[in-house]
């Protein structure tokens, strides 16, 4: 009786129908997703082209986007490796195959190339890691396509493989060796034969299952086959045939006609194993895409937590930080579901995250949004950063919830001054804390360079306009280069703003040339200062232009600290790169002599600023002591600007934590300054609705508000702060009550984190907790994250989770269409408790001018002391009905807010008599930084 023909075409068609359904299901889970296969070909061999066309057709039929990447015959090994590296790193590519043989005029190591394909995308199954897994019976990787197809064909016959004797003829890496391993793990007893096998025909006759892939036409005759055996022919060989128009026909390694008379099942050539190879390639590609989807939609990261070695009492912050070895940042990147081409590593402990991750995850729903603020602090700070980090360590390391901490990058001013670093403290820190507090990835330096380039361009332009007549000035601004004269794109934008609709420099009239060339900056109305990221009091007022080369054109100006630059605020508030560019171009640096604004774009510097800031657009990924993720980005001055980390960092974090995760970020100082600006400026600009506010308080600060003695950095605490004093504490609780009230005015639940210090008594802590709950807090929690890390913030984490599950009814404090004065009053009355606002005549005049220019539609960014709810830093507690005096006002057009000045707020801090500089040193033997916190 003739054998049954096992049609690979029919089985492959059935498999493809099933894969098409799987792709459809995937796209329901992730709209817009299409599995993508990259087929890399070197040269243009026609036999390879035939196979590639088969693969492309099958992919199209299933719904896979297959890209045929053709590389020329002169492609070198290194060029091919670079291309494969790009495909490995791309999250858009799910599967990669390299079409063999490589048709290059240069020598290329095939094994090196197949191993260069990432094992996670190696849908051909030829990477050594995947081959090794298969050899060990681990089929979780990708199995080579032809062997997988052979096993599928055998199974489709209905013949059980288990217990059968299988003979494999051929030991190639592509077919023979892997099929023998697969059959072994299907519980067959396997014999491998090859060209050196003695009595080959006798061995093949013992096979219940015979797989042939030796590359010799019709080598296996019917007499070599055991009656009733299953025969799988993997060969495909051209032999002469005068009856064919091509002069040849294709045959297998088995004499097909003879095998039909002996075997029970036989695969034809062509139409047997070949279509199955393609079907298995498609199956592997769909599997790769499914794994991508599973990773994308998995509710919880596969994050490995770092164990803390808690000591009591805790040693210094830096000793704790150095006692923990951080995870390699590449491991954390992988745990978070990021891809290599979405990050740039800075050593082994930090990495920049590209904003293009937002495009890939545009359809991903974000998590819950939490802000951490404080009560009115002492000069020592009350531990907002420590609270933030303890909270996310508790959420992720102990409660198994995805969470991110988003933090500002600290300025070097406080680091070398008095306050110290901003990496948290105790067992709730960012590591490595030295990197965090010193330079990090250079973003502040980039802001410094960009800010000072703009200042240099402005002063140079003033000088050149003062020393040149109209004609030469215009000619130098639009010179002939190789005989051609044209406007640059940024100059065309200026022409458009001026209403000059011409693109040929030679067609402008003399009046238009003058209008274009002269900015006519009023040197008494310059708003742009140079910056440096240090505390340097002697730069608060300087005179520039004293060199004889400047021809006596001197002027008084000053330096600000770098984090006070408007560029820093722009980076923090931009939603994407285009938004940042638009904001940079609109920054007003001065007024001209007619009172019109002069912008960065007018000075032609926008593009150059973008180039200097290119890497600073990207947030920096770090980790906590317990190995949970932290995003560090931007650090706008909290007094002058809005004091929050960036919108783009929060947006990236929201996508990465997914729908059930949490993003906690910090707002500078108390609820009256940082939290109000976070809600009314940052949330408005980023179009985000927060779910919970955590307000940090300490017994120490509340005692100060109750009338306790001054708290000063570097000096011992007064006895009232280290002994129980319920009366003093009770008097100061009003400050906490005001901050709870402030949070509730935005209709978000307020959770009070009582940051426990070593000298606090249980009675004092309980008094604070009871007061908070009676005065409207959603929850009040006593926290010990400084001494215990995430384990000391478990109750806080649970309170935050519960608060975020309540319906969010967030609203802003004021609408933007209110007048500038009405918005100021709303903030002063509602957030501070003021009863009256006073303005100087100069401020009122500026408000009128800002209103005329449309700046009244901006939100308000109050510049006020953080040490009091009032404008007087010496007044503590929660006073009401006081007068708030606005003694100056300016506008940051690029950042998009109006800044009223309450009292004297310096944008350049100074060093104290004994700064931290005295304690900081570098150990020249070990390379360790000493004396840093």
UniProtKB/TrEMBL annotation:
Residues 144-291 form the Tetrahydrofolate dehydrogenase/cyclohydrolase NAD(P)-binding domain. PROSITE patterns: FTHFS_1 (PS00721), THF_DHG_CYH_1 (PS00766), THF_DHG_CYH_2 (PS00767). Coiled coil: none annotated. The keyword Hydrolase applies. It catalyses: (6S)-5,6,7,8-tetrahydrofolate + formate + ATP = (6R)-10-formyltetrahydrofolate + ADP + phosphate; (6R)-5,10-methylene-5,6,7,8-tetrahydrofolate + NADP(+) = (6R)-5,10-methenyltetrahydrofolate + NADPH; (6R)-5,10-methenyltetrahydrofolate + H2O = (6R)-10-formyltetrahydrofolate + H(+). It is found in: Cytoplasm. One of its GO terms (biological process) is purine nucleotide biosynthetic process. One of its GO terms (cellular component) is cytosol. Its main location: cytoplasm. InterPro entries: Aminoacid_DH-like_N_sf, Formate_THF_ligase, Formate_THF_ligase_CS, NAD(P)-bd_dom_sf, P-loop_NTPase, THF_DH/CycHdrlase, THF_DH/CycHdrlase_cat_dom, THF_DH/CycHdrlase_CS. The keyword Ligase applies. Keywords: Amino-acid biosynthesis, ATP-binding, Cytoplasm, Histidine biosynthesis, Hydrolase, Ligase, Methionine biosynthesis, Multifunctional enzyme, NADP, Nucleotide-binding, One-carbon metabolism, Oxidoreductase, Purine biosynthesis. Residues 7-124 form the Tetrahydrofolate dehydrogenase/cyclohydrolase catalytic domain. Its EC number is 1.5.1.5, 3.5.4.9, 6.3.4.3. Pathway: One-carbon metabolism; tetrahydrofolate interconversion. GO terms for molecular function: ATP binding; formate-tetrahydrofolate ligase activity; methenyltetrahydrofolate cyclohydrolase activity; methylenetetrahydrofolate dehydrogenase (NADP+) activity. In the N-terminal section; belongs to the tetrahydrofolate dehydrogenase/cyclohydrolase family. In the C-terminal section; belongs to the formate--tetrahydrofolate ligase family. Homodimer. This is C-1-tetrahydrofolate synthase, cytoplasmic. It comes from Pieris brassicae (White butterfly). The lineage of its organism: Eukaryota, Metazoa, Ecdysozoa, Arthropoda, Hexapoda.
């Amino acid at each position: 009786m003739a054998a049954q023909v096992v049609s690979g075409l029919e089985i492959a068609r059935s498999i493809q129908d099933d894969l098409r359904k799987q792709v459809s299901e995937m796209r329901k889970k992730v709209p817009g997703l299409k599995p993508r296969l990259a087929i890399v070909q070197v040269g243009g061999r026609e036999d390879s082209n035939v196979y590639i066309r088969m693969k492309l057709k099958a992919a199209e039929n299933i719904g896979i986007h297959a890209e045929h990447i053709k590389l020329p015959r002169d492609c070198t090994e290194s060029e091919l490796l670079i291309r494969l590296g790009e495909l490995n790193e791309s999250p858009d590519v799910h599967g990669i195959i390299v079409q063999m043989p490589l048709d290059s005029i240069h020598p290329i190591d095939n094994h090196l190339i197949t191993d260069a394909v990432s094992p996670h995308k190696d849908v051909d199954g030829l990477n050594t890691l995947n081959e090794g897994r298969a050899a060990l019976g681990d089929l979780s990787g990708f199995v080579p396509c032809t062997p997988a197809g052979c096993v599928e064909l055998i199974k489709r016959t209905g013949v059980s493989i288990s217990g059968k004797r299988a003979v494999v003829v051929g030991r190639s890496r592509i077919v023979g060796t892997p099929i023998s391993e697969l059959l072994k793990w299907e519980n067959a007893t396997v014999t491998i034969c090859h060209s050196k096998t003695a009595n080959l025909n006798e061995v093949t006759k013992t096979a219940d299952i015979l797989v042939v892939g030796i590359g010799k036409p019709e080598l296996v005759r019917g007499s070599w086959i055991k009656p009733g055996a299953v025969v799988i022919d993997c060969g495909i060989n051209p032999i002469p045939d005068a009856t064919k128009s091509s002069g040849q026909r294709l045959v297998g390694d088995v004499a097909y006609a003879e095998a039909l008379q002996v075997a029970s099942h036989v695969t034809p050539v062509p139409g047997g194993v070949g279509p199955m190879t393609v079907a298995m390639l498609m199956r592997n590609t769909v599997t790769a895409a499914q794994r991508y989807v599973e990773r994308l939609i998995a509710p919880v990261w596969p994050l490995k937590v770092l164990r803390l070695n808690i000591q009591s009492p805790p040693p210094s912050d830096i000793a704790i930080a150095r006692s923990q070895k951080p995870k390699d940042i590449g491991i954390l990147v992988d745990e978070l579901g990021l891809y290599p081409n979405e990050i740039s590593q800075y050593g082994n402990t930090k990495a920049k995250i590209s904003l293009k991750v937002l495009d890939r995850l545009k359809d991903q729903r974000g998590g819950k949004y939490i802000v951490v603020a404080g009560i009115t602090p002492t000069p020592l700070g009350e531990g907002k950063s420590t609270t933030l980090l303890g909270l996310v360590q508790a959420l992720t390391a102990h409660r198994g919830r995805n969470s991110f901490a988003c933090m500002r990058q600290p300025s070097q001013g406080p680091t070398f001054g008095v306050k110290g670093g901003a990496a948290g403290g105790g067992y709730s820190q960012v590591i490595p804390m030295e990197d965090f507090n010193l330079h990090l990835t250079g973003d502040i330096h980039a802001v410094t360079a960009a800010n000072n380039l703009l200042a240099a361009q402005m002063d140079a332009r003033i000088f050149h306009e003062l020393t040149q007549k109209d004609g030469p000035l215009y000619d130098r601004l639009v010179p002939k280069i190789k005989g051609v004269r044209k406007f640059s794109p940024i100059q065309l934008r200026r022409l458009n703003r001026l209403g000059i609709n011409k693109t040929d420099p030679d067609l402008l009239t003399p009046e238009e040339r003058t209008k274009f060339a002269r900015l006519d900056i009023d040197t008494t109305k310059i708003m742009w200062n140079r910056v440096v990221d240090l505390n340097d009091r002697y730069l608060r007022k300087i005179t520039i232009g004293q060199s004889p080369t400047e021809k006596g054109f001197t002027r008084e100006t000053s330096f600000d600290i770098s984090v006070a630059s408007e560029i820093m605020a722009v980076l923090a508030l931009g939603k994407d790169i285009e938004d940042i560019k638009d904001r940079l171009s609109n920054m007003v640096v001065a007024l001209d002599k007619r009172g019109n604004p002069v912008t960065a774009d007018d000075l032609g510097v926008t593009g150059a600023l973008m180039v200097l800031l290119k890497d600073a657009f990207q947030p920096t990924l770090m980790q906590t002591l317990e190995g949970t993720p932290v995003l560090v980005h931007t650090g706008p001055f909290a007094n002058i600007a809005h004091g929050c980390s960036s919108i783009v960092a929060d947006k990236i974090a929201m996508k990465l934590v997914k729908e059930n995760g949490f993003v906690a970020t910090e707002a500078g100082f108390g609820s009256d300054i940082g939290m109000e600006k976070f809600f009314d400026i940052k949330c408005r600009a980023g179009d985000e609705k927060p779910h919970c506010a955590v307000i940090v308080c300490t017994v120490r600060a509340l005692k100060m508000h109750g009338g306790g003695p001054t708290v000063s950095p570097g000096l011992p605490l007064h006895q009232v702060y280290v002994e129980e004093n319920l009366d003093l504490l009770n008097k100061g609780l009003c400050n906490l009550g005001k901050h709870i009230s402030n949070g509730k005015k935005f209709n978000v639940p307020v959770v009070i984190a009582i940051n426990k210090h070593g000298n606090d008594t249980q009675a004092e802590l309980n008094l604070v907790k009871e007061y908070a709950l009676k005065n409207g807090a959603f929850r009040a929690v006593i926290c010990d994250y400084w001494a215990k890390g995430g384990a000391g913030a478990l109750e806080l984490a649970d309170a935050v989770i519960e608060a975020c599950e309540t319906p969010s009814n967030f609203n802003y404090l004021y609408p933007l269409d209110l007048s500038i004065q009405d918005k100021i009053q709303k903030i002063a009355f509602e957030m501070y408790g003021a009863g009256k606002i006073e303005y100087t005549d100069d401020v009122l005049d500026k408000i009128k001018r800002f209103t005329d220019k449309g700046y009244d539609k901006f939100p308000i960014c109050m510049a006020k002391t953080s040490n009091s709810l009032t404008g007087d830093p010496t007044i503590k507690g929660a006073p009401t009905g006081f007068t708030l005096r606005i003694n100056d006002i300016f506008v940051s057009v690029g950042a998009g807010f109006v800044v009223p000045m309450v009292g004297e707020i310096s944008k350049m801090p100074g060093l104290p008599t004994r700064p931290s500089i005295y304690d900081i040193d570098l150990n020249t033997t070990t390379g360790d930084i000493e004396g840093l916190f």
